[in-house]
Amino acid sequence: MNHLSDYAELSNDYYAMRHGHSLANQQGIIVSHPANGCSGFGLSEYGKLQVRASLQQANLLDNSTIIISSDFRRAFESAGITHEALDCRSPLESDIRLRERNFGELELGPDSAYNAVWQADELDPDGDYRAVESANQVMARVTELIADCEQRYTQQSLLLVSHGDALQILQTAFARRDASLHRQQEHLQTAEIRELLSA
């Protein structure tokens, strides 16, 4: 479900930030279960540098930006660096709806397994290949967060710090496209910040 379908126009400006390079990226493994991702597998040293470098180019963000982050360590550390660098007036928030997509049976396995999941998404965005959270389930939770933000805020800039697939699917929702097509959106690199533009 795309909760953005209820909005002809959004009243806030939204930006996506993918977490910086993490220890999971460094090891080439999938870390998607909260039991592993919330307390472990934070940013690599390179990832911390990436986040700071991205912020030097992010001239659309300032201390009025509201930052909401996944509670996974790699995302929350990225958000914390960003929050401090911008000297944000609002407290840093976390929201479980921005968590990494749950990759089910693929947990702690090689990240080369992503491709098979994405192929399955194209065939059925409600599928449960290897007990992976479906593309439509991810779309429902990330767009529910946007709908909540539309109720809470007006004419604010919000930075959402999250993960590759969650943000890929959120971009797809902003484009008003089906979740099965999420790989057709331009992929966010680690620590990249991008404005989310609604179709």
Characterise this structure:
It is a single chain. With 199 residues, this protein is α/β, with parallel strands linked by helices. It has one domain: Phosphoglycerate mutase-like (Rossmann fold, 3-Layer(aba) Sandwich), CATH 3.40.50. Helices cover 38% and strands 11% of the residues. It has seven helices and five strands. The chain has a five-stranded mixed sheet, sandwiched between helices. Strand 2, helix 4 (73-86) and strand 3 form a beta-alpha-beta unit. Helix 3 (45-57) packs across helix 4 (73-86) and helix 6 packs across helix 7. The longest helix has 18 residues, at 135-152. The radius of gyration is 16 Å and the shape is globular. The protein starts with 12 loop residues before the first strand and ends with a strand. The mean pLDDT is 97.
Distance between the termini: 17 Å
- Please give the radius of gyration in angstroms: 16 Å
Largest β-sheet summary: 5 strands, mixed
Overall strand count:
5
User: CATH topology, which one?
Assistant: Rossmann fold
SS content category: alpha/beta
**Number of DSSP helical runs:** 7
Shape: globular
Sequence stretches where pLDDT stays below 50 over 5 or more residues: none
State the helical fraction: 25-40%
Q: Give me the CATH architecture, please.
A: 3-Layer(aba) Sandwich
As laid out across the biggest beta sheet, the strand order is: 3-2-4-1-5
Tally of individual domains: 1
**Pattern of helices and strands:** EHHHEHEHHEHE
| CATH class descriptor name | Alpha Beta
Overall pLDDT level: 97
CATH level 4 superfamily = Phosphoglycerate mutase-like
Q: What percent of residues are in strands?
A: 5-15%
